[in-house]
Amino acid sequence: LWGFIDTSGKEVIPFIYTSKPSPFHSGLARVSNKEGKSGFINRKGELVIPAIYSFASNFHKGVGLVGKTGFPGTFVGLDTLGVEKSFPCSCSPDMGHYLGQNYTDYF
Q: What is the pTM of this model?
């Protein structure tokens, strides 16, 4: 299981996540639960965006990309408050370049 410790070795975010949490971006880190769903925690370790996503990117300029159904699937933008926004792509794994270009253009 994964969590966070500070430089003194003190646990600051419990070791309850099944994969390595992402680094913090826009104040949030992506975490995964035992069902393999992703959500986001703040620096206090509070799950501020529920782990309901099959796919989740890190945040960039306050917006991330998430999908509820995995590949192939429809993706939406997500702000740091958990508000979903339209994203112009329904992609499959073989469309990674297309997805990446749309993600870049989205910002």
A: 0.77
Tokens describing residue 23: 């680094």
- DSSP line for 43-97: TT--EEEEEEESEEPPPBTTEEEEESS-SSEEEEEEETTS-EEEEEEEE-GGGHH
Residue 17 pLDDT more than 50? yes
Q: Decide: 12 and 4 in contact? Cβ < 8 Å.
A: yes
**Residue 30 near residue 37, CB atoms below 8 Å:** no
The SS3 call for residue 105 is helix
Q: Return the number of other C-beta atoms located less than 10 Å from residue 51's C-beta.
A: 19
97 CB contacts (<8 Å, ≥6 apart)?
none
